[in-house]
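Tutorial handout. Part one gives the primary structure; part two gives the three-dimensional structure as tokens.
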Amino acid sequence: MLRTPTNPRSTPTAAERSFRQFIRTFGLLERVMQPYFARFGISGAQWGVLRNLHRAEQEGQPGLRLTDLSRRMLIRPPSVTGIADRLEKVGLIVRRASATDGRSKHVALTEKGRQLVEQVLKVHPAQVARVMSALSIDEQEQLDRLLVRVGERLAVLADGIGD
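Part two.
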């Protein structure tokens, strides 16, 4: 077959097939998880903020700066700000001035937010197991190792260090 710029080869490479499947799987995961989180009145992105604030509390931090939350979630600060705005309006988080930096704001869970996180965490392991049930435990561990490697490579590329 003649190779042209619009059709360089008839058969995608293993990397292209894997990449497409990765994107497709991520889209399907969002489609499954969106109604799951909607049952609790939140979005997946809002769950990310709530869960990270909950983890911070468990680590002994009463709140996080929006920039730290952004870094933890791997999303841009303006996106975190928008999510935080919506969570604050419904009383799940509160913003406070930083004790050490007057220019900085910390966000923390309210009691209502903490109760919602606990409610989700009661059923979340079952939802994760349901999503991952297509794979055996060994396959799940293998997938974890592979995703860690891909994630490490993406971190290098995101930092502008890679080729």
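Part three, for discussion. Residues 14-38 form the longest helix (25 residues). The longest strand covers residues 93-97.
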